[in-house]
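As the work plan foresaw, the team has encoded backbone shapes as discrete tokens. One protein thus recorded appears below exactly as we store it.

:::
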Amino acid sequence: MLDQLADLTGILPEYEADAGIFKTNEATKRALLKAMGLPADTEQQAEHSLTLMLNRPYERALPAVFVVHCEDGEIRIPLSIAAHDSPVMLHWSVKMENGHVYGGVASVDNMPVSQTREINGRMMERREFSLPVPQEWGYHCVAVQADGLPENGREMTLVVAPQKCYMPDFITDQYRPWGFPLQLYSLRSEKNWGIGDFSDLKQTVYMSAEFGAGIVGINPINTLFATKPETASPYYSSSRLFLNPLYIDVDAVPEAAQCDALKKYKASKDFKEKLKQARDSDLVDYTLVSEIKNKALELLYADFIKNNVEVEHPTERGRALMEFCQAGGKDLKNMAIYQALAEYFAAKGVLGGFRSWGDDYSHPDNKAVSAFAEKNADRVGYFMYQQWIADEQFKSAAKACDEAGLSIGLYQDLAVGVACESTETWSAQNLFPPEISVGSPPDIFNPNGQEWGVAPMLPAAMTGEAYASYRKILVANMQNAGAVRIDHVMGLARLFWIPKTAPGAYVAYPFKDLVGIVALESHRNRCLVVGEDLGVVPSFFREALEQAGILSFRVFRYERNQDGSYIPPEHYPKLALVAAGTHDMPTLPGFWMGSDVEIAHDLGIYQDSAKMMEADAARTLERRAIIEALSRVGRWFMSPERFEEELYGRELPKKMVEYVYRYLASTPSRLFLPQLEDILEQTAQMNVPGTSTEYPNWRHKLSKTIEELRTDERMQRICAVLRETRS
């Protein structure tokens, strides 16, 4: 029964990773089933849960959702209906998304039976209902009526999706766009308050266009935690629907110049000292930045409400805020209430998430939560005001891409999940399993595997709501972008669930459905899609991505033959984004100099000298492989006089970064992202996977300001190479 339950719920019995083949044990199956609401700790529980699962298909007349393509012609939809002795006619209708309705009548007896099951003394049948596929993409509604149908599920969402994701027709062999992947927080400028902001993003867009780029990438910029500013990972957010207000440029808020309270605050000695400290630091001081920005925004908010909303006739800007809050609906209000509640409990010394707030505040629909929101309406309004300002400034940066002439525009990053205790999980508790974190199994880079601390969505709950929440997340992250990167794209097919009480295992997801919805939203938002397919990749997966028009993510360091040699540029796939590295890897100079090996030693990963020597020797072989690969294409970059020092990573070869970028730029891959950290020859790694406080993750700033980047000789030289090679 346990194995049958695991099979029915998509818990994979085993998986293959770099470290070998791993079987899913019984403890893991029981823990995952319990998280899915199907306890199986005893034989009686397992039998009850199995009965629930076997009965579930018969409880709805139609499935909640069905994803198809126009090219499918005719589809067969499962229909649950009571067995009958006399003829039964099925009345069906299709309501198109555009409002057009059509329908017909069909004989149930002519529909083939696939399964039968007796439920509560009544024999139920699963038949196949044939329906021509509407020849228009969109979210349509199929409705059925007949004697013997279950009361539930007489309507179904029919998703008609394109077979491939959107791809701009200007991307060809002759023009393959390139651009910079930014860690937005890392940007320095003459005006920001110690962290990169949306105005810095806007200026970087214009600078990138001047250099000939067609795309500007950004880390996830979603809402984090107001009471925990040092919890700074952009992949550990509270909500993927909204923005991080720390990226607001306070000085660019339209009312800032007229706000006397803000002017007085900015003129104070305390503010000036803290601003200087925040700007001068080589690492983002999130606590300090949060303090000075929140104080300024609170002053702006109070002044704004007084002069634009709480007046006899609200101003145009006042009405714009009210309309934004109304359009944001329950999602926006829940986010604001969550932040306000987190503040309230933090003041009482309770620093955990909603599961530590007590039963009264454990769900947004509770009476105590409504009473709190009413009593603290001003504070809830403040958090919504933050989002309004952030939304205005981010849209302005996105609009600048068109004004500057970037061919693609912004390239946003969509994280694989949210924090286990977050706005998203609090607001949709039926959608997220408790006590489960997403991670990755052991591999050659992480022998112990990884646990990311983010929550997965329940596959059954996703289909039960016709993927409504996932669709909203896609739209929120595509609507202002020309491209989106889906973090850990393998999650469309399977995610590695890790319970607290047992080892992890893979859980399958409805891959065909999810890819179809990604493709549909991709076309609707004119947004091409990149899938981050690094790590443990199923054998079928990259071919399936290519068929769906999703670009693979290819990193120079991993594109190697079995003998360790680097594959030649012409062997890279066309439908791919190519890069020298990612935020989770050492920079190109850092890799050459072995800074990641030193970090691993400092963190205790290489605890003895033998392992350290082994890692150093492996890195020397990797340097030799890079030298050989570039030499094959006529790009010798080593200095004859300093060969030993450069080979063993004691010095950085002057032409190494430029020549690696020439190599990668010459690939046929459709997109190429050179990192500013590489061009500036920085060695600090942005994030070391598997660490939190042991290393200053998500804090390193660029060594030069945006204003200095414009005239930097290395920028000019390498960008000239990219313009020549990619256009």
